[in-house]
Amino acid sequence: MAFTLPELPYAPTALEPYISANTFSFHHGKHHAAYVTNLNKLIEGTELADKSLEEIVLASAGDASKAGIFNNAAQVWNHTFYWNCMKPSGGGAPTGALAEKISADFGSFDKFKEEFKNAGVTQFGSGWAWLVLDSGTLKVTKTLNAENPITKGQTPLLTMDVWEHAYYLDYQNRRPDYAQTFIDSLINWDFVAANLAAA
Prior knowledge:
The protein is mainly alpha-helical. 52% of the residues lie in helices and 12% in strands.
């Protein structure tokens, strides 16, 4: 089955002034779309053609002969997940079971925010900052390029894209400002809580 570019879960202007419609036109309309197109070409006629996106990511991870497939499949997965990690009027603090789990595993919500921002800011080059569930414990991690925590048996709950195309049109070289804005004003805590509940 061929994959299609998923619609954004909000209007391209919905996250302004934090992320502009101009950024979405490139990030979703060009970058994400290209990963979908490339993936479809790479898996056409192969044993992966009828697999789910997650199955393709797991089947191609660590296989040098399938690096192109992995990079495009994982980037399709990562971006689709990332769009859902944000919402208009997002940010603030989580509530309920998620808030309790964050406090229990990090010591405080402020400590989580500090670790998550630091992961995004210190990721050298392109990549992602993640909040994952790992053997029952919440952890902050970061991955390079297209890497995804599911290949390590972790369950992603939240991600922040720190490839330059995610923020450069709006923030130029100020990745720390983008990371702080993402945490303070964009995180969709309902989506994160649903991911924790489903795990």
